[in-house]
């Protein structure tokens, strides 16, 4: 039985992965921002679980909440075999940038800085496992942006913001962090980043869209990959027998190329340094 933490486990791919892993007999720790939605998801997960899953409240836009979640998780489990950094925000209705209490643009905070800080806080629990793994998540949409780069010096600058730019910018950072973390762990941690294609949204998320957006999105949603299918991808990687198939893989576990900028060693090291500074210089186990 593996101990597996999943962020954003109350809906979408995260919920499906949590459900599959719990049903397979693993101890799932579901990290969710909204307590009410988290409790509903937990009941869903535990309906088929062989061992009861646990719920931990975690708001990835708030460093204090991330630290508290890590402390609660440490009280629940003596080690952590797998961390799946699944949670992300990609709300196309956020037409103007929003900022966290710490002054960070919301997409950058939730989709990059939050997972970065959570992984740091959980690194000692991961280091206590026999074969620890961190699974991060990027997007197939990056294929349309082969020249995308990290905007050093403009990370929280609202002048270039659109929800699409902010989302893919943070997803590039997740790929680069995956590569750097593996290097810094020096063989003591396996990491991979999944290139997720367009995923079919849950009906409640579609219903919450404005009418025009819902109408325009309907054809794309019908053609998107079911969340259940991608949940199986997460679950398979979490329990992979042997070495993970690559540092950056698609939903079928095939190694794929990242945007060119992700292979710039100096840029990756700079991203690590600015992420450390932005999250209060957390301590890592490696």
Task: Describe the fold and architecture.
- This protein is of the alpha/beta class.
- The protein has one domain (3-278): NAD(P)-binding Rossmann-like Domain (Rossmann fold, 3-Layer(aba) Sandwich).
- It is 44% helix and 12% strand.
- The chain is built from 9 helices and 7 strands.
- The protein has helices spanning 12-23, 35-46, 63-76, 106-127, 163-185, 203-207, 211-223, 227-238, 265-278, and strands spanning 3-7, 27-32, 54-57, 82-84, 133-139, 190-196, 248-250.
- It has a 7-stranded parallel beta sheet with strand order 3-2-1-4-5-6-7, sandwiched between helices.
- Strand 5, helix 5 (163-185) and strand 6 form a beta-alpha-beta unit.
- Helix 5 crosses helix 9.
- The longest helix is centred in the middle third of the chain and has 23 residues, at 163-185.
- It is globular and about 50 Å long.
- Keywords: Oxidoreductase.
- It comes from Nonomuraea diastatica.
- This is SDR family NAD(P)-dependent oxidoreductase.
Oligomer class: single chain
The span between the termini is: 25 Å
- Radius of gyration, taken over Cα atoms and rounded to an integer in Å: 18 Å
Q: Major sheet: order of its strands? A: 3-2-1-4-5-6-7
How helical, in percent, are the residues?
40-55%
Q: In sequence order, what are the helices and strands, one letter per element?
A: EHEHEHEHEHEHHHEH
DSSP strand content:
5-15%
Main sheet: strands, sense, barrel: 7 strands, parallel
Shape: globular
The CATH H-level superfamily is: NAD(P)-binding Rossmann-like Domain
Structural class: alpha/beta
Count, helices: 9
- What is the residue-mean pLDDT, rounded to a whole number? 93
CATH architecture: 3-Layer(aba) Sandwich
Q: How many individual β-strands?
A: 7
């Amino acid at each position: 039985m593996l101990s597996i933490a999943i962020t954003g486990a109350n809906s979408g791919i995260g919920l499906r992965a949590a459900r599959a892993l719990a049903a397979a007999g693993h101890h799932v720790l579901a990290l969710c921002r909204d307590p009410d939605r988290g409790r509903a998801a937990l009941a869903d997960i535990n309906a088929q679980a062989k061992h009861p899953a646990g719920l931990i409240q975690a708001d990835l836009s708030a460093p204090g909440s991330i630290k508290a979640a890590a402390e609660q998780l440490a009280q629940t489990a003596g080690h952590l075999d797998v961390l799946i950094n699944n949670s992300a925000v990609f709300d196309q209705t956020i037409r103007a940038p929003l900022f966290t209490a710490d002054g960070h643009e919301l997409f950058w905070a939730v989709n990059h800085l939050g997972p970065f800080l959570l992984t740091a806080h959980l690194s000692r629990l991961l280091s206590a496992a026999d074969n620890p793994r961190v699974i991060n998540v990027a997007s197939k949409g990056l294929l349309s942006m082969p020249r995308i780069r990290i905007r050093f010096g403009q990370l929280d600058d609202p002048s270039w913001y659109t929800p699409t730019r902010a989302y893919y910018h943070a997803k590039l950072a997740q790929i680069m962090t995956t590569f750097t973390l593996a290097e810094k762990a020096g063989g003591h941690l396996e990491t991979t980043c999944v290139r997720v294609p367009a995923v079919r949204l849950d009906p409640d998320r579609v219903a919450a869209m404005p009418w025009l957006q819902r109408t325009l999105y309907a054809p794309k949603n019908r053609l998107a990959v079911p969340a259940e299918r991608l949940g199986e991808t997460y679950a398979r990687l979490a329990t992979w027998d042997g070495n993970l198939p690559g540092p950056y893989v698609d939903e079928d576990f095939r190694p794929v190329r990242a945007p060119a900028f992700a292979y710039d060693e100096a840029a990756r090291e700079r991203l690590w340094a600015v992420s450390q500074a932005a999250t209060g210089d957390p301590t890592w186990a490696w």
